Amino acid sequence: xxxxxxxxxxxxxxxxxxxxxxxxxxxxxxxxxxxxxxxxxxxxxxxxxxxxxxxxxxxxxxxxxxxxxxxxxxxxxxxxxxxxxxxxxxxxxxxxxxxxxxxxxxxxxxxxxxxxxxxxxxxxxxxxxxxxxxxxxxxxxxxxxxxxxxxxxxxxxxxxxxxxxxxxxxxxxxxxxxxxxxxxxxxxxxxxxxxxxxxxxxxxxxxxxxxxxxxxxxxxxxxxxxxxxxxxxxxxxxxxxxxxxxxxxxxxxxxxxxxxxxxxxxxxxxxxxxxxxxxxxxxxxxxxxxxxxxxxxxxxxxxxxxxxxxxxxxxxxxxxxxxxxxxxxxxxxxxxxxxxxxxxxxxxxxxxxxxxxxxxxxxxxxxxxxxxxxxxxxxxxxxxxxxxxxxxxxxxxxxxxxxxxxxxxxxxxxxxxxxxxxxxxxxxxxxxxxxxxxxxxxxxxxxxxxxxxxxxxxxxxxxxxxxxxxxxxxxxxxxxxxxxxxxxxxxxxxxxxxxxxxxxxxxxxxxxxxxxxxxxxxxxxxxxxxxxxxxxxxxxxxxxxxxxxxxxxxxxxxxxxxxxxxxxxxxxxxxxxxxxxxxxxxxxxxxxxxxxxxxxxxxxxxxxxxxxxxxxxxxxxxxxxxxxxxx
Length: 631
Ligand code: ADP
Known about the structure:
The protein is α/β, with parallel strands linked by helices and 631 residues long. The chain has two domains: 8-354, ABC transporter transmembrane region fold (Up-down Bundle); 375-431 and 443-630, P-loop containing nucleotide triphosphate hydrolases (Rossmann fold). 61% of the residues lie in helices and 8% in strands. The protein contains 22 helices and ten strands. The protein has helices at 8-15, 19-28, 32-65, 84-134, 137-141, 145-187, 189-196, 198-236, 238-243, 247-300, 312-322, 326-330, 332-354, 414-421, 459-465, 480-484, 493-502, 506-511, 529-543, 559-574, 608-614, 617-630; strands spanning 375-382, 391-398, 403-407, 446-449, 452-453, 466-469, 547-551, 577-581, 593-598, 601-606. The strands form two sheets. A six-stranded mixed beta sheet has the order 6-7-8-3-9-10, with helices on both faces. The longest helix has 54 residues, at 247-300. The radius of gyration is 37 Å and the shape is elongated. Residues 141, 384, 390, 410-416 line the site of adenosine-5'-diphosphate.
């Protein structure tokens, strides 16, 4: 299989600099109180959790076995009572108290840390969605919806895991290692050296693991991405899959992708089978050595090159704390993996955010108001990919109220012409205002409404005045009424019904059991093509634009429905400017102007009668269509 071409998405992703740092700067900083509270609570909870073994050690030495003064690391002995009873009571209170403090602060830390992570994620998700919606159509033409979905889903959850677990686990790791080290060293620095010598070994083992795991994690990430793309594609194309009886083929492809993911996951896991027990073994050995050296010391005095004394209490503290290393350290590999994941994911998130919007409001764009409906194409040239010219020097004008029909073969550029009017794409060439000098004059023309270049007015106001009924009418999952009122969200029920009547949709809607409250199903699948079309027309009628663009798609409806749609359209177009793409020439006989488009150029123009009289391309098309109809 050929490597897919690098998309605009990949390009911007690769350019993102230090994504994690940017994540914190852009999204973390505004939420810093939660972050700070979470970190502080975490530290307090962890430190408190270290206290019981220490207090126990102090109590053993002062209360149970000897008459040493009660003392805790880092605190002066004069702070503590000197009767055994009081020391015992204090120990009980401290031990119980530290469990309570640990519980309370673990709770607080959970709340704060989760709030931090999820608030950040909420912002990231909504921002990337808003950003994505603002991108121009050419971004979506490259079929990147699947990829965008995976940014909004997978990448967002990777970041969540990182912000939630990885950050807190690393904080815990630092606090535990530092805290235990401080305690052990202050209890007995010589035994601490013996015990802590396991830590460098643990780090070495972790490094060994990470170096080997990194490429495997990388492969696993690629495999899961691949699997998701596969699943998305197969589901999106389910109709084709079924109609081609290709279920087995699709299942096979998903099985392959899933099996690769399985293998790559096992590859990672095989390493961790060695790593985790390895860490535990090291911790266990450190425990055994501490027990042996400390025990010998207590029984027979300082062994080997060690000097001084070891108290039984300190010995107990050592025994307890030695066991606390393992869990936080064993998390290191997870933390690193989550960090790598998050780095890749935030690069994708910011890659998306960095893509320039393309078609957007110009600086100082004005509102288009009080529209008469005059449309003008002035020497318009356009290509989708800067290579193949799709529209080539097209000029025409439509006066307010006129109907202009575009006819011609498939692929001639008719839809493209219409999309330029709505600014779904921009005409080629620099906008006049962006031109620096007179000689910088690469003028590829302009589309104008009432004399205003469409690039000079705001997108919102332009689209408010230019209605668009496209060839593939899209309905949202929701009710018929909601779909008619899409874009005019506060329209009354009366207005919706009025519009539906005008679009000849009222009759069939009223006949449905739930009428206007009928759910149309995903993308409107529960309605027929003709019904969807009429809902879309009703939507355009309700929006009441001065200019209407209609990409006629009546081929999938019966002749009677077509006639009725045609009538409602004629009504609709009556007092507004209409640009209509007609596949059946019979529907545009009355147009004020018919443009025959071929290969992105207007090859003929005129009224129906004038064009017939010319006996050119239009007359040919007409005779082909009428003879098929007759035959
Ligand atoms: P028509 O409406 O006359 O059938 P179109 O305007 O849809 O023609 O298409 C004109 C040409 O532009 C065709 O060659 C088509 O393949 C190409 N084209 C249409 N849409 C896109 C797009 N989104 N990206 C790239 N090329 C496109």
